[in-house]
Amino acid sequence: DKGLEKTSENLFSKLGKAVIGKSKVDDEVLDELEEILITSDVGVDTTIKVIQRIEERVARDKYVNTTELDKILRQEIVGLLEESNEVDLSNFELPKDKKPYVIMVVGVNGVGKTTTIGKLAHQFKNAGKSVVLGAADTFRAAAVDQLILWGERVDVPVVSHGMNADPASVAFDTVKKGVDMGADVVIVDTAGRLHTKVNLMNELSKIKRVMQKFIDDAPHEILLVLDGSTGQNAFIQAKEFTKATEINALAITKLDGTAKGGVVIGISDQFKIPVKYIGVGEKVTDLQIFNRTEFVDSLFK
Ligand code: GDP
Questions:
Q1: What's the gap in Å between 110 CA and the centre of ligand 1?
Q2: Which end of the chain has fewer CB within 10 Å, C or N?
Q3: Residue nearest to atom 16 of ligand 1 (CA)
Q4: Ligand 1 and 257: CB distance under 6 A
Q5: Mean of pLDDT values over 94-106
Q6: Above 60 in pLDDT, residue 88?
Q7: 282: Cβ below 6 Å to ligand 1?
Q8: 280 ligand 1 Cβ < 6 A
Q9: Where are the beta strands (DSSP E) in the chain?
Q10: What is the mean pLDDT of residues 229-251?
């Protein structure tokens, strides 16, 4: 799979080495597997869960050979990944009764939030959808400027009141524009300052409230963007953001630059949130709709 070579090389080659010369899954193989999963940033809790399930199968079936281990491991990991069934994303289709479909994007600076929004706008547009973006991350001039730049690049309108503007007022005008235009998708960028948790929480609820003045059930998607190459930091951010707001979708970026794609598995399992998108490069087309079976297969290719 394009962009995931580093991750797959890593997991696959390590697993290959762990089982080399062994015909049977024994404690030593399981110990090595545990280490591989932990060093791939799957996270300790999820790793323990996987190992326990495999131990149970080995105990039940008495003799599990190392080829079967590969198959069992895939099945267990697919089972741990949350399924995203709200939207048929196979071709960027959106629910018909949610128009515009409102996406609120959260995440700390530097994780690839603006890039992900630009890529999403491009792909929705390519699928024939009309898109409006809102620059409600008003604490950084760069965030506002970059979103405007992305809007120009992918040719979609961006609602902006500049830096330091009230984020809720930007969100209000963005959703209003989306409704007025009859747009299919509205994507609102928001600030992600974790050091002021109470402020963040208040701000996000305020943004949600103004969106609901137009659309009762907006935002339909609260998308948390995480940098897949930051391992434990991504876990910490997921923990903090899920405390501040409900999160119902994840975008995990920079998986092209890391051998630690295991973070996708751990975070989806720990927080019970589906991964919807993965970022595999800096180009506008380097965003993939996440498919758990394909992802797991790519890890073992
Ligand atoms: P923001 O501060 O969260 O809005 O982050 P940006 O969108 O500005 O992205 C920060 C940097 O990460 C930029 O240089 C992006 O080009 C880069 N980036 C974003 N997503 C990806 C990705 O999936 N792969 C790679 N290699 N780089 C990415």
A1: 6
A2: C
A3: 282
A4: yes
A5: 93
A6: no
A7: yes
A8: yes
A9: 101-106, 131-136, 158-159, 185-190, 221-227, 249-253, 275-279, 287-289
A10: 92
For residue 191 and ligand 1, the question of a CB distance below 6 A is answered with no
Cβ neighbours, 10 Å, residue 60: 8
Model confidence band, residue 45 (pLDDT cutoffs 50, 70, 90): very high
Is residue 270 within 8 Å of 108, Cβ to Cβ?
Answer: no
Give the pLDDT score at 86: 46
Size of the chain in residues: 301
Q: In the prediction, which pLDDT does 277 show?
A: 93
Q: Estimate the share of the chain in helix, then strand, then coil, as percent rounded to the nearest 5.
A: 55, 15, 35
Res. 114: pLDDT tops 60: yes
**Token duo for residue 287:** 């965003």
Where residue 299 falls among pLDDT bands split at 50, 70, 90? confident
ipTM of the modeled complex: 0.99
> Tokens at residue 131, please?
């898109």
| Rounded distance between C-alpha atoms, residue 231 and residue 219, angstroms | 28
How many alpha carbons lie under 13 Å from residue 97 in its C-beta half-sphere?
A: 3
What average pLDDT score do residues 121-127 get? 93
pLDDT confidence of residue 189: 96
Q: Which of 115, 139, 150, 255 to mutate to test the pocket of ligand 1 (most atoms within 8 A of CB)?
A: 115
- Spacing of C-alpha 237 from chain mean position: 12
Residue whose entry in the numeric block shows the structure tokens 């996708």: 264
Which strand (E) or helix (H) includes residue 259?
none
Amino acid at 253: T
Establish whether residue 254 lines the binding site of ligand 1, counting it when its CB lies within 6 angstroms of any ligand atom: yes
Return phi, psi of residue 247, to 5°.
-120, 130
The CA distance from 269 to 49, in Å, is: 10
pLDDT at 257 over 90: no
Residue identified by tokens 């400027």 is 145
Q: Is 43 in the pocket of ligand 1 (CB under 6 A)?
A: no
Residue 28 Cα to ligand 1 middle (Å): 40
